[in-house]
Specification:
single chain; about 500 residues; alpha/beta; Rossmann fold; 2 domains; 5-stranded parallel β-sheet; 10 strands; elongated
Length: about 500
């Protein structure tokens, strides 16, 4: 795989000079076509042998193209804030908008490469990282982010020669990093690590290109050609299938869980007041415990029919919390800024750090509910979303988040009664909108979509709690009880 690069091919300055004007013009034109179409973004992942000239080459790309529309994304050791979130959070957070180019240093490949380059690599860890990467890149590609990966390679002798040549001149010695000097001693480990990464993660939708790097002209030419070829593709290469968590691959039986709820359950006011105080006290203690702050976060997603009492349930939860500890995110139709990135991007941005609580009034499930029922997206997109959502929640839980999802359910007659009550009340009439009435006309469609959503995304790490909400007091207590019991079990 690395044979050509390690043969250190050469290109004369004259030959390069003949091709340079053509490449520069073609790259700039292709960049502006991407910017004007804004149908995708392009991520260029930079990796390879240290001291192979990666930084120089990226500087050249910025020189040959318009740097105003290129974002160089450099990731080092995670900051304390980044370390408290799932590993992929910082990469999701930095994704460029459609029409833009992102060049990524210190990418999501670092943990895999570091382990593969060790003296006794853990193959299980490498396989897990490779699976995480394949899922991530497949999801990006399926959501309009084109990914290409460049591995800069040269022989051990050429790397050492280049390092010594740069050190020999005060004008270039600053380009040599301490890590470059260590490469000769561990070259074969680094080579094997690159081979492992490429073998595990080279796909049609996120391909690796090996760039021979001993000769500056060859390195620049091959890089420019790889980027130009990616920009000239008519559309983002789509994965054959998005890699799904194991639970998502199991056969799913869809049942009418909404129809089987007991909507007659309720509680009297005196019992409600007593139990409400007790549950809020338990919640306050759990969220203030040192163990929660050190190891966990809390993610609560509230869904349900319009007028099911989501806002009231959320207020009873937050009454027990420190206002400095939580954030409520109401979800509505995405803005143009949000639409320029993958669907889950705006939810990744709200992932809490340890000890904090994120509450979503409606959530990422809009893709398989509103967007599906209202035909805002095609069947391929909402069907793919089940796996993407399960993957998202799996990463949250894997980082210590306690993820709970609530569906507050009411019957059509109770909803109608509450709609009329809102219209009559000067304090509530802002809550009723034409969308509420339109959604009501499609009650059966939403019920069908909800039952399928529950069947495909109710997992042990992020369970759905389906709650009868005809009696608001009963629903509020049920929400609090589920949160308290889940937190006390973990703490």
């Amino acid at each position: 795989m690395f044979e050509e690069a390690e043969s250190d091919p050469k290109l004369s300055k004259e030959a390069f000079a003949r091709q340079e004007p053509r490449l520069r013009t073609a790259l700039l034109n292709a960049q502006y076509r991407l910017l004007n179409r804004a149908d995708r973004s392009l991520l260029i992942v930079i990796a390879g042998i240290d001291g192979a000239g990666k930084g120089d080459t990226v500087n050249l790309l910025n020189e040959w193209m318009d740097p105003r529309h290129i974002h160089t994304l450099a990731f080092d050791t995670p900051t304390p804030e980044e370390a408290e979130r799932p590993p992929l959070w910082r990469y999701w957070n930095a994704l460029p908008a459609r029409g833009r180019i992102g060049i990524v240093f210190g990418s999501w490949y670092v943990p895999l490469l570091q382990e593969a380059a060790s003296k006794r690599p853990d193959t299980t860890f490498i396989d897990q990282q490779a699976e995480l990467i394949r899922r991530f890149e497949a999801e990006l590609s399926a959501n309009g982010v084109q990914v290409i990966k460049l591995w800069y390679h040269l022989s051990a002798e050429a790397q050492a020669e280049r390092t010594q040549r740069l050190l020999a001149s005060p004008e270039t010695s600053w380009q040599v990093m301490p890590v470059d000097l260590k490469v000769p001693k561990k070259f074969h480990h680094l080579r094997d690590a690159g081979l492992a990464a490429i073998t595990h993660t080279d796909t049609a939708h996120a391909p690796w290109t090996i760039v021979p790097s001993a000769d500056e002209q060859v390195r620049q030419l091959r890089t420019a050609e790889a980027v130009l070829a990616a920009l000239r593709l008519r559309q983002v290469p789509r994965p054959a299938r998005v890699h799904k968590p194991a639970e998502s691959r199991k056969p799913v039986r869809i049942v009418d869980r909404l129809g089987k709820l007991d909507y007659k359950v309720g509680i009297d006011k005196e019992s409600y007041d007593t139990e409400l105080g007790l549950l809020q006290g338990r919640l306050a203690r759990a969220t203030r415990s040192p163990k929660f702050h050190a190891r966990h976060s809390l993610v609560l997603a509230f869904e349900g029919q319009d007028a099911a009492g989501k806002g009231g349930a959320i207020r009873r939860v937050t009454h027990a919390l420190d206002a400095r500890q939580y954030e409520i995110t109401p979800i509505s139709a995405p803005s143009a800024y949000e639409l320029s990135r993958p669907y889950l991007w705006r939810f990744w941005r709200q992932v809490p750090t340890l000890g904090r609580i994120a509450i979503f009034d409606r959530s990422w499930y809009g893709r398989v509910l509103i967007e599906r029922v209202e035909s805002l997206i095609g069947p391929a997109e909402w069907r793919r979303a089940y796996a993407e959502i399960n993957n998202f929640e799996e990463q949250l839980a894997g980082n210590g988040a306690i993820v709970l999802k609530f569906w507050l359910a009411v019957t059509p007659d109770v909803q109608l009664e509450r709609f009329h009550e809102r219209e009559r009340s000067p304090f509530k009439n802002f809550k009723i909108t034409p969308d509420d009435w339109r959604n009501r006309k499609r009650w059966k469609d939403y019920a069908s979509a909800t039952n399928e959503m529950l069947a495909r995304t109710d997992t042990h790490i992020a369970p759905w709690h389906l709650i009868s909400a005809n009696d608001k007091r009963y629903a509020r207590l049920q929400v609090l009880r589920h949160i308290v019991e889940a937190m006390e079990a973990r703490l």
